[in-house]
Amino acid sequence: MTSRETIALPPPEGSASEPLQQLLMQRRSIRSFRPAPLSLTQLGQLLWAAQGITHSEGLRTAPSAGALYPLELYAAVGAVDGLKPGIYHYHPGEHRLSKVADGDRREVLARAAHGQSWIARAAVVIAFGAIYERTTRKYGERGVRYVHMEVGYAGENVHLQASALGLGTTVVGAYDDDEVAAVLGLPANTQPLALMPVGHPEGGAGEH
After folding, report:
1. SS3 letters for the chain?
2. pLDDT tens-digit readout, 103-140
């Protein structure tokens, strides 16, 4: 059953903590994590990096064709200080979370991702969903391509923000769509596009 509980997130930092060039150099795909929690501030910063509001007219951190913003962000929380395990939906306009479901769903997500067990060891799994109609109603079938471009922009923002915070992540695209949608409690009009497990990396975990 969906809960109406909402959680206010700490304000995101607007200034870069490290030079962009350094972040680009150190960004790596991480699939091995230490058993340590994220802070609520870190989670909020990651979500803001993906889809946060950066302009009074509602423009966001990632570009969107026609400023239609088809992406919806969810977080499968397992270990975040001050936040109970569960599925949370991110609301960029208010920079808030709303709880969708209780309980730690990381293991279930790992099974839905064809048994990639390392996913369950991340502190949180950020999930990107898309409501294609927001874009295709203006651009037709070409809009599907624009949505896929947009999730790439937003995912790279998360990669770079994770690097700036000393965290690790990578994009997971291999999973059963229906199973992931069910675990996340996605509405019928929302398609899962990518998973990004995030946590504290173990030494030597970078791959590419």
Report:
1. CCCCCEEECCCCCCCCCCCHHHHHHHCCEECCEECCCECHHHHHHHHHHHHCECCCCCCECCCCHHHCCCEEEEEEECCECCECCEEEEEECCCCEEEEEEECCCHHHHHHHCCCCHHHHHCCEEEEEEECCHHHHHHHCCHHHHHHHHHHHHHHHHHHHHHHHCCCEECCECCCCHHHHHHHHCCCCCCEEEEEEEEEEECCCCECC
2. 999 999 999 999 999 999 999 999 999 999 999 999 99
H/E segment holding residue 72 = strand 71-77
Q: Residue 98 has what DSSP assignment?
A: E
Amino acid, single-letter form, for residue 119: I
Maximum Cα–Cα distance for the chain, whole Å? 46
Report the amino acid identity of residue 76.
A
- For 167-183, the pLDDT digits (tens) are 999 999 999 999 999 99
Nearest to 175 by CA among 109, 89, 122, 76: 109
DSSP 8-state secondary structure symbol assigned to residue 66: G
pTM, full prediction: 0.91
